[in-house]
């Protein structure tokens, strides 16, 4: 899937877009579908615009794969290390 947003919309609309995308991802997951949002599609704005006949005011925000994951594929078993929450979060007003 390819997602776009109108160029005239403000940064606050980009937050709304992100929330919409997250909701779509969660809804897919509940239905047993896997997703992979990919911002790299932005680099191909001109190609996508031409192929899909987009208006010049439509900005590509991302693409997203959607389907059933092949859990046996090595790429889907890749264990990516994660930073601990404390490494990038500061909690203010919460007592331990």
Count of DSSP helices?
Answer: 2
Number of strands: 3
**What form results from the Cα inertia axes?**
extended
The share of residues in helices is: 25-40%
Poorly predicted tracts of residues: none
Largest sheet: 3 strands, antiparallel
Radius of gyration: 17 Å
Strand proportion? 15-25%
Commentary on this structure:
It is a single chain. The protein contains 2 helices and 3 strands. With 96 residues, it is α+β, with helices and mostly antiparallel strands. Strands 1-3-2 form a 3-stranded antiparallel β-sheet, sandwiched between helices. The longest helix is centred in the N-terminal third of the chain and has 20 residues.
Q: Which helices and strands appear, and what pairs or packs with what?
A:
Blueprint: E1 2-6, H1 11-30, E2 34-38, H2 45-52, E3 58-67
Structure keywords:
3-stranded antiparallel sheet, 3 strands, 21% strand, 96 residues, alpha+beta
Brief write-up:
This protein has 96 residues and is α+β, with helices and mostly antiparallel strands. It contains two helices and three strands. It is extended, with a radius of gyration of 17 Å.
